[in-house]
Amino acid sequence: MSTAVNAPRATASAATATAKNKASAAVLKAEFRIFRREPGALFWIMVFPTVLLVILGSIPSFRETDASLGGIRLVDAYVPVTVLLSLIMAGLQAMPPLITGYRERGILRRMSATPVRPSAVLGAQMGIHGAAALVSSLLSLAVGRLVFDVPLPRQAFGYALALLLAVLCGLALGAVVSAIARATKAATAIGSAVFFPMMFSAGVWLPVQAMPDALARVVEVTPLGAAAQALGDAAAGDWPGLSHLGVLALWTVVLSAAAARWFRWE
């Protein structure tokens, strides 16, 4: 008897799970089509970091070795910086206003009454923006190598691990902004307020390797400062410092927990 009763329930549960999976896949496709039609997001995430690298690399002094950077050139040091810049753009400038706009217009609330769970939208956005940041990173590495003869990362696995943690951390930071902002304008304002300190810690204005020791130690406990050091170590052929990877992992866990705690669907 119990087997006969449980069989329909199991079938119904399987059907519900299948429907949710199909709905999530449909949301991902729809969100990807929307993202493709946003030229501003595509430019700032996927094109601007590489354009910045080309501009900086075109300065003759940036192509000369610098003793203060350990004998590498400034253009070599700026490749990891432009890699990080793409995920800053994705996590802080592109994703929060979009998700907050969905909440503000009641889209997430209406989705809660359908097989599509609002979490599918958040997951799709994080996946799309994370993938865009990774593509931009590969583009920066390729242009650096082909145009300015910047060596590819000598510790490829360590570089990939550090980059993955950096992307997860950047998206988690963007999720926190999306969680605490109740309106699109607020998301833009908060994202911009966090954006510039993150750019500084990533080394946009001054590579972390060239910072005074006291300042570098402070910067290295920030998410992007630790990421910059980890990527720089891997590019030079060393395994990223465990302290830097630990800082990235800790920030990712803390920010993800904060986003989950504070996020509201309506």
Task: State the main characteristics.
single chain, 266 residues, mainly alpha, 10 helices
Contiguous low-pLDDT stretches (5 residues minimum) are: none
Please state the structural category. Answer: mainly alpha
What's the Cα radius of gyration? 21 Å
Q: Separation of termini? A: 43 Å
Average pLDDT over all residues: 84
Q: List the secondary-structure elements in sequence, H or E.
A: HHHHHHHHHH
Report the helical percentage.
Answer: over 70%
Assess the beta-strand content as a share of residues: under 5%
Query: How many helices does DSSP assign?
Result: 10
Q: What number of structural domains do the residues give?
A: 1
In quaternary terms, these chains amount to: single chain
Give a short account of the largest sheet.
none
According to DSSP, the number of beta strands is 0
Globular, elongated, flat, extended or rod-shaped: what is the shape? Answer: elongated
Task: Set out the fold topology.
Layout: H1 2-36, H2 39-57, H3 74-104, H4 107-111, H5 118-148, H6 156-180, H7 184-202, H8 213-219, H9 223-235, H10 242-262
Helix pairs in contact: 1-5, 2-3, 2-5, 3-5, 3-6, 3-7, 3-9, 5-6, 6-9, 6-10, 7-9, 9-10
Q: Describe it for me?
A:
This is Transport permease protein. Residues 40-266 form the ABC transmembrane type-2 domain. Belongs to the ABC-2 integral membrane protein family. Keywords: Antibiotic resistance, Cell membrane, Membrane, Transmembrane, Transmembrane helix, Transport. The chain crosses the membrane at residues 41-62, 77-99, 120-144, 156-180, 187-208, 242-263. This protein has 266 residues and is an all-alpha fold. It has one domain. Helices cover 77% and strands 0% of the residues. It is built from ten helices and no strands. It has helices at residues 2-36, 39-57, 74-104, 107-111, 118-148, 156-180, 184-202, 213-219, 223-235, 242-262. Helix 2 packs antiparallel against helix 3. The longest helix is centred in the N-terminal third of the chain and has 35 residues, at 2-36. The chain is elongated, with a radius of gyration of 21 Å. The termini are far apart. The mean pLDDT is 84.
